[in-house]
Amino acid sequence: MRDGERRQRLARRIIHHAMRGFLQLMRGLGVLDYRLHDCQRLQRPGLLVLANHPTLIDVVFLIALIPHADCVVKGRLARNPFTRGPIRAAGYITNNEPQGVLDAARESLAKGNALILFPEGTRSVPGRALKFRRGAANIALRTPCDITPVLIDCQPSTLTKGEPWYHIPAQRVMLNLKVLPDMARISHE
Questions:
Q1: pLDDT for res 93
Q2: 181 burial class (0-12, 13-18, 19+ CB within 10 angstroms)?
């Protein structure tokens, strides 16, 4: 497709449905189960979604639940031969240039996309205190929308930072995802 906007919408729609299918497959095979709370709130346009990041699959859930999801991804993923194609096709924002991230976030939200951010910047390490980065706060302060917080819990812990992807828990993984009430926009002025 020559029309970049149309190609991007189609790529995001395909990724959204692929993630939904993946979650249904994993549940059907008994690999994982999940409980979703107030997720219909993620269907609204122009959301700034801030979520904790306890496992590698939480982003799969968010993209599967949000039809017009945009997200900020690590720059190295945009260079990885396995992930760069979908990232480029979907037009996801890379974190290579801080000012560029802020401008791209504003533009994405203005188009009605839901922007997914993980304030930690990377996955949580079980047992360690959370350490937030400034990027999500800067975007929250400089964009004209409320914050939609999402709280994610994964038991037993799996696909965490520093844990090999092939380490399989002895019991079925249960992921709880709860969309909390919006937080009113905070002005930085």
A1: 93
A2: exposed
* Alpha carbons 14 and 90: distance in angstroms, whole number: 9
pLDDT in tens, 27-80: 999 999 999 999 999 999 899 999 988 888 899 999 999 988 999 888 888 899
CA separation for the pair 20, 15 (Å, rounded): 9
Where helices occur in 29-154 by DSSP H, the ranges are 58-65, 84-90, 98-110, 134-142
Q: Which helix (H) or strand (E) holds 21?
A: helix 4-28
Q: What amino acid is encoded at 87 in this protein? A: I
Q: Whole-model pTM above 0.85?
A: yes
Which amino acid type is present at position 114?
Answer: A
Helix 134-142, helix 98-110: angle, nearest 10: 40
Sheet holding 147-155, edge to edge: 32-37, 173-179, 147-155, 48-51, 114-117, 69-73, 93-94
Low-confidence ranges of the chain (pLDDT < 70): 1, 121-132, 186-189
